[in-house]
Amino acid sequence: MSDEFGGDFITLTDEDGNEFELEYCTTVERDGTVYMAFLTVTEGDEDTSEDDVEDEDGGLVILKVEQVDGEDLLVTIEDEAELEAVYEQVMEDLFSEEDEE
């Protein structure tokens, strides 16, 4: 049980220099590309401003892993169809893990 307590957190910096914290959920591969899913981390209580969370998925963020100069970088997915397909795969992965427990 101790392995399941808590989560893996990362801090990312966007192109404007803003830092934000994410909690790792899962990694999926689709068509030879690796994607990582995270939950946004908000500080404070449930009364956090709705402006801080821009999507209806409860803060789910899916990023593509790309190699740039030999380094893995996490980048946003620009293509809506790609994002939707990866989202479905992430949801299947997350729910299948819950079923196994």
What does this structure look like?
By secondary structure, the protein is an alpha+beta fold. The protein has one domain (9-44, 55-100). The protein contains one helix and five strands. Strands 1-2-3-4-5 form a five-stranded antiparallel beta sheet. A hairpin with a 2-residue loop joins β2 (19-30) and β3. 8% of the residues are buried.
- Compute the gyration radius: what is it? 15 Å
The ordered H/E elements are: EEEEEH
Shape category: globular
Mean pLDDT: 81
The total beta strand count reads 5
Could you give the topology of this structure?
Elements: E1 9-13, E2 19-30, E3 33-40, E4 60-68, E5 71-76, H1 80-100
Antiparallel strand pairs: 1-2, 2-3, 3-4, 4-5
